[in-house]
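Dear Dr. H.,

I hope your travels went smoothly. While you were away I took the liberty of generating a structure for the chain from your last submission, since the lab meeting agenda had it listed for discussion. I wanted you to have the full record in hand beforehand rather than looking at slides cold. The sequence, exactly as received, is reproduced here:
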Amino acid sequence: MLKRFLLRLTCIVAILFIPSLSQGQERCGVAKDFMFQALERIRTRSESEAADGLQLLKHANELCRGLGDAWYYRSLFERKLKQVAKAEYSLSNAKKYGSEAMDEGTDPFNLAAAAVPIQSAQAVSSSSPRQKWALVVGIGRFADKRVPRLNYTSKDASDFAELLKDPQVGRFPPQNVHLLLDGEATTHKIKSELNWLARSAQPDDLVVIFLSTHGSPRELDSRDVNYIVTSDTQIQPQDELFATALGMVELTQVVRSRILARRTAILLDTCHSGAATSGGTTGTGESSVASDTLDSIRQGVGRVIITSSKVGESSYENDEAQNGYFTFYLIKALRDSKGLDPLQKIYNYVRDQVSENVEVKYKVKQDPVLSRSDGDAQIVIGAPPAGG
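The corresponding predicted structure, in token form, is as follows:
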């Protein structure tokens, strides 16, 4: 009870510090942030997590009644808590206002690749994948001129996509590798491509998601919520940041509840040196993906997530190689092994090389982090698809 009271008090305090609204005005960006915080609460799918998250969703709808996604998730949380009548009312509002999450069938309480006996999980992930799919995103140029440019993120993505399509290394069918660069990598387009992965990949397939851009932590209400700065993100005012950036939880929910593939690798390079932090005035900050977010993504079977740095660290670019250090050594490790080393071995090499070289060059720490599902066999990115 005390925990629930403190959570509600935190929400009330946060709302009090939001600038007063004129009649009829809504703060849908901030409401969306509350919604993301509610989704980040769901890790073990317990009723206590649902009860905490429901308070946040209620505040989301207080701020923005027309946020259909919040109403939809609210109906799921209420149903989880056996509040059937309230769930029906919330669902009717989701239908009234429209909800992408409802249309896509996203459910934070559902694991698309639920746990199976260890022997079965190992058999799936050690056999040849039926098919292979990849989404590769690199953004270095932003519509909002307040966001500093990045020198090599687009090249990182292009180089990585070419490696995946290389028949001697990645062995991905070229048509199955979708590449988004700079202006085309809008929030809407990235979400559309994540939906393409969710529709396309089957349980016996391999999925790779590579993302390189600025990262933005949300630290006023919860350190668990991160944002991905897309090409059309507006970073000020704060309401616009929350409304236009891609919530890391949106990626999390697709991986958790909609991608069926029992081999899914997520490679995130979302915090760069000077990552839109000048004077702390842009509303973004230097912070990699929160550990709780990593834990959320890795739920289920066959999930491996590698981030380019720890929380509180930056990710640096290598002018000599014209790549980020993380991507440069990732590509080198995959190419040297012809794509056939397991990701754990690839990670060990990348971690050691990035940490050593960044410290020598910049006298700072950059330590890549790996998180993976428990009890799984290794993922091999260059494994030939069963179809040849």
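Two observations you may find useful: Residues 1-24, 273-286 have pLDDT under 50 and may be disordered. The chain has two domains: 2-17+26-104, 118-372.

With kind regards,
E. W.
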